[in-house]
Amino acid sequence: MFSENLGAQALKTIREFGLFGIFSADIFRTIVYAPIKTRKVLAQMITVGVESLPVVISTGATIGGVLALHAYKGLSTFGADHFVGPLVFLAMAREFGPVLSALMVAGRAGSAMTAEIGTMRISEQIDALTTLSININQYLLVPRVIASVLTLPILSIVCTTCGVYAGYLISVYSLGINPEMYADSIRSSVLTADLLQGVAKAAIFGLLFSLVGCYKGMATVGGAKGVGKSTTESVVYASMGVLVVDYILTALMTLL
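The structure corresponding to this sequence follows.
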């Protein structure tokens, strides 16, 4: 019985990955061959990017301060507290900036994508648009995907900047580290490639959570309960995907 349930779950998971792959390929095909609706992309950039700024800024600032406290506690033991600045910057730029931005935006904007599209699906609005010969991918989905890919790198940079600045404030005014030393250590130890790695990650994470959000919205069935289920699954799958893909990207970037 256990083996049957395990096999059924494995087949269900494989089928879900297959359908998601077909859906993603269809979205990419639409991006390449169909005209992009610029106004809709800009509107989605406001929804995904501008409206997510408060949560991203607060998250970055909080994590930056915590990193400074932990880094100082560990490094000061060995008389290396002048490395607090580079450690905070590298951690925020390479990992915490893109990852936390993706997780926060997936929870806020990704869930909204799923709920909105799912509601349109169960209320037959998407069927009505299809009847009118409107390309659903071009009209509803592609603008959300493009907006997510474009805005998440910017949000990642904002998150990183807030984290580094919060680390500076904590280090200088709470821990007593020399401000010039904090800034100089960052300039001498950090490369442009460190920031570019985080930006590249953020763009990929934006693509991932937007595809998951749109896919789960289009796959919604079962009325209001189905919308809630799809929204929950969207946030969970997108968050798990971000963490798994982050490890893969980090491993690849480390080898290069």
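Residues 85 and 182 are 5 Å apart (CA to CA).
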